[in-house]
Amino acid sequence: MDKEKYYLIRGDILPESIYKTVEAKKLLESGEVETINHAVEKVGISRSAYYKYKDKIFPFNAATYQQIITISLILEHKSGVLSMVLRFVADKSGNVLTINQSIPLQGIANVVLSVDTALLNLPTTEFLEELQQINGVKKVVVVGQG
After folding, report:
1. Is 1 inside a domain boundary?
2. Do 40 and 16 contact (CB within 8 A), yes or no?
3. How far apart are CA 32 and CA 120, in angstroms?
4. Each residue of 13-53: pLDDT tens digit?
5. Residue 29 shares a structural domain with residue 92
6. Does any domain span residue 6?
7. CATH number of the domain that 134 lies in?
8. pLDDT, tens digit (0-9, with 9 covering 90-100), for 94-131
9. 134 near 106, Cβ under 8 Å?
10. Buried b vs exposed e over 48-57: b needs ≥16 C-beta within 10 Å?
11. Which residue range forms the structural domain that includes residue 50?
12. Which of 4, 20, 136, 144 sits 20 to 30 Å CA-CA off 77?
């Protein structure tokens, strides 16, 4: 069995221990309970069942929501270039999570953006190609995905 395959399965056919693991994770994430012991006790499963499944089962929206890319950009040090980049990301329904900018040297600034691309209104490759076309953007490189 391939460990990297994913399946979309209706929740009502899941074994009770898997369903309860999801419920325990929700309790922990929401802060309703503070410890794994309290979470598993509240939903009625063993700690061993929780640990067996906790890193392997996620609600569908959690698995599809975050698609984060980290992009390194070389920008001309001109007024408004970074603003145009950020406006472009927003116009394409991307969500900027972090921005790091170096001090401009010799008219060039290095900017690193982490962008949530889950809701982009175009494919990521097109997004990157169009980003490269913005006036003042000299180079675009994806340095990480997660």
Report:
1. no
2. no
3. 33
4. 888 999 899 899 889 888 899 999 999 999 999 999 999 98
5. no
6. no
7. 3.30.70.260
8. 999 999 999 999 999 999 999 998 888 888 888 999 99
9. no
10. ebbeebbeeb
11. 11-64
12. 144
Amino acid (one-letter) located at 119:
L
In a domain, 48, yes or no: yes
CA atoms within 13 A on the CB side of 118: 12
Q: Which residue has the higher pLDDT, 84 or 122?
A: 84
Domain presence at residue 91: yes
Statement: residue 65 has pLDDT above 70: no
Tell me: do 94 and 51 sit in the same domain: no
Residue 142 tokens read as: 């994806």
Residues in the chain: 146
Query: 116 and 52, same structural domain?
Result: no
Q: Look up residue 90 and give its DSSP letter.
A: H
Q: Which amino acid is at 108?
A: I
